[in-house]
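User: Please predict the structure of the protein below. I'd like the answer in structure-token form so I can feed it into my own downstream comparison script.

Assistant: Understood. Taking the following sequence of 184 residues as input:
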Amino acid sequence: MNRTYLFVPPEERSEVEALGATWDSDLKCWFVDGEPSSGLARWSSASDDEKFSTISNDAYVASAGITCPHCGQETEVICIHCASGTASEQSLEQFTVFDIRAVNETLLQELKSWPDFRRTIEGEVVGAFANHCSRCGDAIGDMDLHSEPDHVFFDIVHAATGAITLTPISLPIELNGNEHFVIE
């Protein structure tokens, strides 16, 4: 049976457990077998009516160090870089994805290596994935990392040697987010 992984803030642990979710101690996350019940749907990766818009068989986790805009300390940030793939059924090359709202199980497993890249929580609303400073814990705006020529993920292909580390993702990924294209 397929597992559906849930994105649960620590303070909501008892609520999802009472609704039947199970803790995976190896992956450090909650899951249900099959589709989540309506009570657990708000913690699931993608809603039932939402299909994955971006697919890639040639994807990487791109990581770099930046100065946290909140506390001024050095922290690692990541993004998803696709050498090739499709977005809304259009073939693309050399693009990054930001404002990630949903991911498939393959990508979710890969992201476990970067615990500071996780969903944002605002009140009771679970938001998009975002980098969080490893020092102060504040969310770092995803758009800020991709939007301007002097920002870290604006042009991964032409970044200075050693500025960005690309870690290949071994299996195809599916996700929902916004694409940023490298202009050649």
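That's the full token string. The helical segments are 13-18, 105-111, 142-146.
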